[in-house]
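so my prof wants the structure for this chain in the tokens format not the other one, which i didnt know existed until like an hour ago. anyway here's the sequence
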Amino acid sequence: VRLLLGLLVLGSAGWLGWALFVGPAAPAVEARAFTSSRQCAECHAEPYAEWDGSWHAQSWTDAEVRKLSNDFSNTDCIDCHAPRPVLETGLGNRVLPRATRRVEGVDCLTCHQLPEGGMAGTITNEAAPCRPVARRELVQAEYCAPCHDQHGTVQQWKATPFAEPGPGFRNCVDCHMPYRDGDPTRGRDHTMHGGHDPQLLRAAVELRARRAGGTVVVEVENVGAGHNYPTDERSRASDLFWRPLAAAGETPGPWRHLYRFRNPYRYEVGEVNTELPFGETLTVEVDDPDAAGAVEVALFYKLSPYWADPEHPDPDREATQ
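here's what i got, hopefully its the right format
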């Protein structure tokens, strides 16, 4: 029902009154059955385009994923790389793998489809073909947990000040799905910024170096990640290097490895978790005669430690700070 509120002038005395006009009912839109995220593009072109270029959309087709999962012969990976809807299994429960549309990866239906029909959204609209229902869980960290807490990321976040109620509260969507241009009226960015975003990586840690006597002291502090650095994907790694600074016109020498941040896989016997928790600082010393002069220090973030030898970083595949 459409309501129009108008101003009505009554009589020669100029009396004023309010008149309420009731217009015709809005035409009903038939509810649709959604079987593919491609259907969402018809009404939600902007978020669909963002998702379509995201790593969520590539979670099944990405070459690194295919390599690390041995083309998904490691079936444990399928659950989170081609999952059924989160709300089908419920918050806090591991998602189940789907048998169809796996090429769509972690898609619109994964996060929005409701088991009883319709979609989880930010508003309730019975006139829309997808019949969205407002569900506040969408912005809770527990919504991401079925996949992203497999290696403790949400638990790491809960141990930080970001998880405490108050003005400093920030959860998963605040960093990884910010409002478009910072404007809440424009909705959240579905690009899903993460480890592939150099700007987000640079905001996560601070790299420092100073001289102390005859040594160079290098520090890496987790200042902005709302969890360990790096986190979640056990294939992720971050390596700290140094080398003597080359004189103008000279070719720099090879990087020399100092430290690796990484949470190893279960089968990597003897390896320890060296991730850097939020608020903590790693301090290492370079006690080497070659460090007597000017040196340069670099921190490489590796999307996969298996693509390159840790002693020989590949800048084309790694974000550098």
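also thought this was worth mentioning. The radius of gyration is 26 Å.
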